[in-house]
Amino acid sequence: INSVDRTYNMGNEKIRIQELKKVGEYWEILVLKLRDEVMPGIADDSGNYSIEILEDGKYYCESTTMLYDPENSVLVLQKNRYGLQASNVEILLNLINVDNKIKIILKPIINKNKIKLLDNGHAYRSLEIGIVNNMEEEVIEDSTGIMGVLNNFQKYKGNVVSIRIGYNKKSKKNESLDSNLVIDTINELYGNIHVNKLKTSIKFNEDTKVETIDLLDDRIYDYENLTYCKENPITHDRIISVLRNLYKNKKSNMRL
Prior knowledge:
The protein is of the alpha+beta class.
C-alpha cells in the first residue's frame, strides 16, 4: 500500500504511516505527524528571520519510530514530545484495524519493583487513585467498597475521577490507613488500563520519613543519548538500531 493511502485524520491532525516493513523477526514502523498550521521559522547569522510557507500538498512533520515484536506482542516506542504520543498510537492502531470485533489495547510492561515494597507492617499515610474511562464498561468487575465507587462514577456522566484518602496536619504521625485494605486496593488497580494515578505515602518504620511511592512509574523504559549534527542527523534508521539494541538487552528480563 502506498504511504499516501496510509494517511489518517485523527482530530485536527493528519497521521501517516510512512514506512512499514518486516526486517528479520520484527516490524519496523515510521509514523509521521503532518502539520500545516504552526510553521517553524528560519533565522540566519545575518540577523534575518522568516517563516517558510510550503506549497499546497507539502507539510512539515514530526516523526515517531516504532519496533514491533509480533511473537511477544511488544511494541517498542520512541518517545518524541512533538510526535505521536503513546495514547494516540493506540487510537491509530484501532483506526487501521480491519477487524471491528477486536479492540487493540496497549499496556505498559511493568517490572513490579515498587509494588514489592508494600507490606502490611508499614504505616500508610495516604492513597491516591486516578481513573480515566472513555468506554462504557466497568473498571473492575464484581467490586465493592471504593472499587464499587470507581465503577459507578460514570453515572455522574463523567469519565475522570480522582480520589485521595489520607490525614490532615492535625493527625498523629503514627496513624495509618488500613494497610491490608490499601494493599488489596493497589493490587486490584495495579496494571489496570484505566488507571492514570496510583500513589501511596508510606512510613516504613518509626525512624524514617514518609515516602511517596508512584506505582505507575513501575514500568520498563530506557533512555539513550544520541549525538547529532548536520552531517549526522537523528534518522529513523539510527533510532531503529537503538530500539533493536535496547529491546534485545531488555527482552530476557521482561515478564512477557
